[in-house]
Amino acid sequence: MSYLTFEEYQALGGKCTESAFPNLQFEVESKLDYITSNNLSACLKELETIPEAVKKLEVKLINILQNVNNERDTSLSSYSNGIETFGYVNTSSENNVDLEGQILNRFKEIAMQYLSAYPQLFYRGRYIDYARNNNPFK
Questions:
Q1: pLDDT computed for residue 7 by the predictor
Q2: E strands along 1-138, which residues?
Q3: Which residues, other chains included, contact 79 with Cβ-Cβ below 8 Å and sequence gap of 6+?
Q4: How confident is the chain (138 residues) per 10-residue block, as mean pLDDT?
């Protein structure tokens, strides 16, 4: 389920092209589901409309991801036509893994700020909303 359309994305300040939008949107929504243990998708399925905070969060994260993808150095450093050999400037998988971890951490921090009204999304255990009312130590 997509959280917003390309038209909504542009209206909220989106900067990527229409052709790049579906891939970036899928990646952002996948990362948000990972961060929230699929709680975000489950919560949004129950709602009739997507909250504005979720839409603005997705716009911000898509813009960040687009900038990160543009900054990655994927220029060709070598090419062999013996049997199709390619080489790229940044071939270290450690750098890519480290970058993905940094992106996930940054996404989590931003998501927790934007979705602070929904604390149950980031709780990995069982969340019982009415249990707060029974707590005498509150």
A1: 94
A2: 76-80, 85-88
A3: 85, 86, 87
A4: 88 92 94 90 87 93 86 52 56 61 89 88 66 54
Picking from 45, 37, 52, 5, the residue whose alpha carbon sits closest to that of residue 108 is: 37
Q: Among 52, 63, 54, 82, which residue's Cα sits nearest to residue 24?
A: 63
Are the beta carbons of 64 and 15 closer than 8 angstroms?
Answer: no
Between CA 53 and CA 56, with CA 55 as vertex, the angle to 5 degrees is 65
C-alpha span between 31 and 119 (Å, rounded) = 17
Give the Cα separation of 4 and 1 in Å (integer): 9
Query: Please, are residues 30 and 36 in contact by the beta-carbon 8 Å criterion?
Result: no
Chain centroid, CA 62 distance in Å: 7
Task: Tell me the three state secondary structure of residue 79.
Answer: strand
